[in-house]
What we know:
By secondary structure, the chain is of the alpha+beta class. Helices cover 38% and strands 22% of the residues.
Amino acid sequence: MLPYLIVYAKKNGQTYNRLGITASKKLGKAVVRNRAKRRIRELYRTNIGKLRSGYDFVIVARSKTASVDYGTLLSAFMSAVEELGVLK
């Protein structure tokens, strides 16, 4: 699911998760970048209960993050975290 988003995860040695989101200027103007970041934040917020604790997550917004429908973005996110092995 590379055209939508990329997820990196690393153990942080804590009992809580941390989230970092990046959206470069290649994505578009500020409105488009902020929309992509809001959508990613909402994905993370609604699915945080399904993720293991003690990880730092970095999610990189890709070119189609702001324009694709939410269901497709959700399936891309879930398949990415499943591939990383951080689902409960």
